[in-house]
Amino acid sequence: MEDGATTPRVTASDMVAGQIRIPIAHKAMFPTERQQLTIVLRDETVVCGWNPQVGPVKQRSGQLRPPGEVLLRLVASEGCMTITFEDGQLVFR
Fold first, then answer.
1. DSSP 60
2. pTM for the complete prediction?
3. Which of 19, 43, 75, 86 is most buried (most C-beta within 10 Å)?
4. Could you give the count of Cα atoms lying within 13 Å of 23 in the half-sphere of its Cβ?
């Protein structure tokens, strides 16, 4: 998998929307179809919704949606996370 993959800053708007954005450049690490994914988020295993946002005209950042309370507890607003692939799982730190 890719080295140096990161999320953009998780903004206050992202927190309200309940999402972590995945840049187009790193979407190849993720499935191409909308589905539920099990990831490791800050050392905790979490099931999240995944929307790759593949449009007919324009690609957009993908959206990863962990449960709201998990997002608020584990993800700092205005921070970025690294994304790695370890032991068959996507890991966010």
1. -
2. 0.91
3. 19
4. 14
